[in-house]
Request: fold
Amino acid sequence: MEFLFNPALSREEWNEFVVRHGGGFLQSYEWIGFQEKAGNTAARIIIKKDGVTVLCANAIRHALPFKKAYWYIPYGPVISKEAQDAKEIANFFIERFARVVGKDTIFLKIEPQEMKAQELFAQRGKQSPAAQPQETVIIDCALSEEKMLSAMKPKTRYNIKVAQRHGVKIVSPDDQTKIDPEIFLSLLSTTAARHRFRTHAEQYYREMLICFLPTEVSVANHACTARLFFAQHNTEVIASALVMFFGTRATYLHGASNDTQKNIMAPYALHWEIMNLAKKAGYREYDMWGVATERSSDETKRKWSGFSRFKLGFGGVVVERPGAFDFPLRPLWYIIYKGGKQVSHIRSWLNVV
Reply:
């Protein structure tokens, strides 16, 4: 097998492999470009066997104190569905990747997307806290509108009608020139402060909009793009959503709303319209990107209970992820790192309590 670090592979070739073998937008060619624009060191890796690509992986370097670091693979790597020796490929990937990352790297963190990938990493890796949602709800956009509505909870269907009766208007990407993207950033900041959840720095989101919002009406095949959707009431934007489009899936990545008019139920009409627009554009799934369920940790339930009720109301299927696995390369430093994380968690818990 051949290990290639930052190979000369075109965007079309990379994304075609990722889409064909079930990878998501975090493993798209564009995601690494965005990470680099956001100031992160990142790399694309492929493995070839007999000249054929059998694995693709986006990896992002995260700096740690004392000039140390770890590399993280979000919802990856993507391994060929036709591969008969997936475990051998995964082991080869870990071993060769460990050789090229440098002595400052304490560990590799791999977070697969599919539960079946757990068996490839669980034996050698140490289970660790996931960075991405471990459970999400995915809605089948291939269904008719009637079936999509019937799969929703009655309260959700009712709230969609409430928003429609209030005259909520959804501004689609075709009308983006009418809405300033800065409104999304402002609403996101307000929502984060209201619900006390952390966000990236504002420049991170600005760079995301620059990298993913298309500048032309038509986009290349297999391209990873984003769209902003806005819900208006009496010309005022009161809810917004940033949705990623890649492969056959649309993913609701970030959302925000104005709580002063929450009785209008604008987010319900907003997501119903997004689902229909995704369906018309040929996307088969709408990923709500993270929910808390009975299987979730107590902390996740506490933090996510509110918006999880909202998301689960739209129906769909709850999908589990396997979590993350650490592969220590510097055992002593890894122990020090884990100890520091534990102290930080205890301090955070004490502040909450």
Residues 331-352 form the longest helix (22 residues). Residues 345-353 have pLDDT under 50 and may be disordered. Residues 2-132+322-352 form a domain with the Aminopeptidase fold (CATH 3.40.630.30).
